[in-house]
What does this fold into?
Amino acid sequence: MNFVTTPDSVLQIATQAMARTPDPRLRTLMTALTRHLHAFVQEVKLTEDEFEGALEFLVAIGQASGETKNEVVLAADLLGVSTLVALLNNQDPQGESPAALLGPFWRANAPVCDAGESIARSETPGTPLEVSGTVRDGRGQPVAGATIDVWQASPVGLYENQDEAQEDMNLRGRFKTDAEGRFHFRSVRPAGYPVPTDGPCGDLLRAQQRHPNRPAHLHFMVSKPGYKVLITQVFADDDENLESDPVFGVTRRLIGRFEPQHGGEHATLQHDFVLEPGEMNFPRPPIP
Ligand SMILES: [Fe+2]
It folds into this structure.
């Protein structure tokens, strides 16, 4: 007979109950998660009130998610877990990872565009931006026919799905690299933006006295069959929040050089990407 007796005895019995899990990876994941959760509860001596609060938070982030917002992804982002998973799974032999978290705003099936086209589909006032770069493989060879999926916030700091004034799929587009691995497109400079603060994650940020403002950035997803999908972000080098990104996405390598042209009338950004060989697996879109 194996009964729960003391607080310490619960863990052993709980993990024993999971030992028969046929899927070995699920068994490993759930056993380790249970062990860490128990250690956490013991370490902080979690009260019943706090436990209730934690469960309410989980219910609330689910309820706050829907067509235009994914509060669950946001919660993982704000805890640094999304960045940790991105960096852990995309380590670079030379040092800093070229990857960054997906974030809650990627939509699948952005419009397919020709090279040089603008992704500003509706009237989007702001500083015109020309983006260009080359996609290479690990040996420095250009990758032709790679897909560059780009999405960004507007110059007022809103994604189209958050903003009535923008056309559907505004500031989103998919481009292909040419025979030399090059891509280019036109847009407007994105502004930094606060992560959504009208839900339970906003309450958490306020309780922690953390500001919600992400530095201005463009999101990129670079893919081609035979290569791992590269999910990343490129940040504006003149943004005041580079060192206090609430979702910890900024690495030195991801700071792009936004060069003002003609006295700041417009700007250029040149940024190259490197694809690693592997399986092309796309993430699940956080919003439809
Ligand atoms: Fe973003």
